[in-house]
């Protein structure tokens, strides 16, 4: 796929759930750049912003990456090194690219994809109430693979400018080749060829309210203690590190009382 550097564009927010602060849909297929030959070295990222110029910081609760596999009749796995940034991870667009949060999601299942058809799937990554920096509230993210074990390629679902439903976007995605960052788009058209990865970012809810009764109390403490230990994907893993432990207990106790 030939890449072109495109100019910057923005898209105003449309109606969406009050909890969703940034969302790009998928109306333009997929881009699957990771494969066994390059996955250990390269990163791909994208960015946008939530509002501003004088908006307060926004607490973020989770990001959903809308992903794709292609070209393998058998499933596989990879670990995903994920970063959330203040603007594009390259530092070449809005924001300075400073890391707001990073994690490694282990054992991500890469589904089989048959023939010329891609397989689409979502990966939800909890964010331990990460705050944007205020102002425009720049956000960016990048993905790198570790322990890649898949016979085909892997990447992102993508959208055009009309797929941006909440927040503001940049035309250019970013690419790290192992030593330096650059920006790219899929062609010169600033709506149809933008490199726009499909994601959804949600505002932090009252994460420690595990039973959903509107307050953090003894019932939630009991649920957290009952999940103690390795617990990837469990709601009691409040900081999203794959284990329920003292760090999560501290977050729960710090949120004790009625949810805001």
Description:
The protein is mainly beta and 260 residues long. The protein is built from two helices and 18 strands. Helix 1 packs antiparallel against helix 2.
How much strand? 35-45%
- Molecular shape: globular
H-E string: EEEEEEEEEEEEEEEHEEHE
Class of the largest domain, according to the CATH hierarchy?
A: Mainly Beta
Helix content: under 10%
- According to DSSP, the number of beta strands is 18
Overall CATH architecture of the largest domain: Sandwich
User: In this structure, how is the largest beta sheet organized?
Assistant: 7 strands, antiparallel
Number of helices: 2
Radius of gyration: 19 Å
Content-based structural category: mainly beta
Total number of domains? 2
What is the fold-level CATH name, i.e. the topology of the largest domain? Answer: Jelly Rolls
Euclidean distance between termini CA atoms: 48 Å
The residue-averaged pLDDT reads: 88
In short:
With 260 residues, this protein is mainly beta. It contains two helices and 18 strands.
Layout of helices and strands, plus pairs?
Elements: E1 20-24, E2 30-34, E3 43-49, E4 59-70, E5 76-85, E6 99-110, E7 119-131, E8 138-149, E9 153-157, E10 164-166, E11 168-169, E12 173-176, E13 181-184, E14 199-203, E15 215-216, H1 218-226, E16 229-230, E17 243-244, H2 246-254, E18 257-258
Antiparallel strand pairs: 1-10, 1-14, 2-9, 3-8, 3-11, 3-12, 4-7, 4-9, 4-14, 5-6, 5-8, 12-13, 15-18, 16-17
Helix pairs in contact: 1-2
């Amino acid at each position: 796929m030939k890449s072109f550097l495109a100019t910057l564009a923005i898209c105003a927010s449309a109606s969406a759930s009050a909890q969703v602060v940034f969302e790009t849909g998928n109306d333009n297929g997929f881009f699957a750049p990771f494969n066994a030959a390059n996955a250990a070295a390269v990163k791909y990222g994208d960015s946008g912003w939530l509002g501003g110029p004088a908006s307060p910081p926004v607490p973020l609760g989770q990001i959903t990456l809308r992903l794709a596999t292609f070209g393998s009749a058998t499933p596989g796995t990879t670990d995903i090194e994920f970063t959330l940034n203040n603007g594009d991870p390259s530092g070449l667009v809005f924001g300075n690219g400073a890391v707001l949060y990073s994690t490694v999601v282990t054992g991500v299942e890469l589904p089989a994809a048959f023939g010329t058809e891609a397989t689409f799937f979502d990966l939800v990554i909890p964010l331990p109430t990460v705050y944007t920096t205020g102002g425009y509230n720049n956000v960016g993210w990048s993905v790198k693979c570790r322990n890649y074990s898949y016979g085909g390629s892997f990447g992102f679902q993508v959208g055009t400018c009309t797929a941006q439903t909440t927040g503001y976007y940049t035309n250019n995605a970013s690419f790290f080749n192992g030593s330096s960052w650059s920006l790219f788009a899929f062609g010169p058209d600033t709506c149809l060829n933008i490199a726009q990865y499909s994601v959804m970012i949600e505002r932090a809810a009252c994460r420690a309210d595990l039973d959903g009764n509107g307050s953090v109390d003894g019932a939630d403490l009991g649920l957290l203690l009952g999940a103690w230990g390795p617990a990837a994907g469990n709601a009691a893993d409040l900081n999203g590190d794959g284990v329920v432990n003292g760090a999560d207990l501290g977050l729960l106790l710090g949120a004790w009382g009625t949810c805001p």
